[in-house]
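User: Structure tokens for this complex, please. No commentary.
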Amino acid sequence: MNILLVEDEKALSNAIKKILEGRGYFVDAVYDGLSAIDYAKGMEYNLIILDVMLPKLDGFEVVRILRKDNIGVPVLMLTARTMIKDKVTGLNYGADDYMTKPFDTEELLARVSALTRRRGEVMIEDVGFEDLTLDLKTAELRCNGESVQLSKKEFEVMKLFLYNPKMTFTKDNLIINAWGMESEATDNNVEVYISFIRKKLKYLKSRVSIKNIQKIGYRLEVTGDD
Amino acid sequence: MNILLVEDEKALSNAIKKILEGRGYFVDAVYDGLSAIDYAKGMEYNLIILDVMLPKLDGFEVVRILRKDNIGVPVLMLTARTMIKDKVTGLNYGADDYMTKPFDTEELLARVSALTRRRGEVMIEDVGFEDLTLDLKTAELRCNGESVQLSKKEFEVMKLFLYNPKMTFTKDNLIINAWGMESEATDNNVEVYISFIRKKLKYLKSRVSIKNIQKIGYRLEVTGDD
DNA sequence: CACGTGCTTAAAAAATCCTTAAAAAAGTTT
DNA sequence: AAACTTTTTTAAGGATTTTTTAAGCACGTG
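Assistant:
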């Protein structure tokens, strides 16, 4: 369940994002009207939460443009409590619901779930490749009905591989992505973790393995392929 | 939780009444504007659902009169999809929310609970998962005929788990949802409460337990599953 | 075969989590 | 308002898991 959040006030934006993510929604946050249009055209959202007052292009314009382009995603408008007239304008331009600021957590969640019509339903998003599936919620790696629990770092590394199954990653690549820019991890750290993961892949009897190319890096490989 | 339903179309009125009664609300149905005023003055309702088009006295007038008499009960207006301008008028006269016909059950329930909950009241339904049932009214957690009383915070945490039984919550998630955005609760607070709840789950001999995945979060687990 | 590079493992170190007890705060009752 | 109860927070020690470190072995390439 993907939500596009358009709100220029950073503090509020972060608060809303956290609340929604806490309930399992995936949230992209942008901070002005033009980006909102770009994002909304770029991918399929299940809901757009749209502040009225925005830099570059206000909320009304955003809805109007989207509707003109036949993008029918439900839109929830945020307006200041005083500006009741906004409600009308927004609704005339094609918004589906409005909510006045400030609002409380429960109200937000109620309206969001009303608009997405998926009350209580769970949203599971997994990444997969060949016979492997990685559960992004629990960091469990599954294969042939079996599953193993990955640790946080194993998870980060595996996620990288599964998102880019054909790519070869240098050790530095892996360090930056799984350990972070600041980290002082060494090549040996990577080797150790590759070893951990290989052990788990073997246990799962997966057709996928991690291949090393000397001095170049690691990538996924499927037995019987090349 | 008492609701006054004002809708002259008998078939629709009965449908709404049934839906709401199914969720534990008590519903009085009347069929014109004058009766609406009588009833609303006669007893305390938690919510009035008000059609715009009514015999004798239309919906707008009803809200206006009630507000003038300092009756602040939340009002949810029903309008035909085409009559967007009604929304404005209704809101200006003091309605709290509107809904366009036709609408679906989930939407109705979401709005009704948003409006009734806003006044701090608790809903009547229970949440359940596997052998557990959480009474939202009393915060009692039941299992196999036994039951234990949860404290406020235990209740908030458990509610979150039961509403999203498959989801994994980070400690931050739990803090935001159970303690609130502003709170300065630490990870340790969460750990302590998880421990409290686990003790109660054990006492109830439930098949459900709370599993931790290091550095990732907590989620419900059913013994014998995975 | 020798060198660099990668693999594996064990153990040390660090981080995270669990549990409990006691202090503080909030809520009740008398 | 004081005494009591319950809930929530804080704190500390121990248990567990993850991550790092380090050392010896294996492997392939030149």
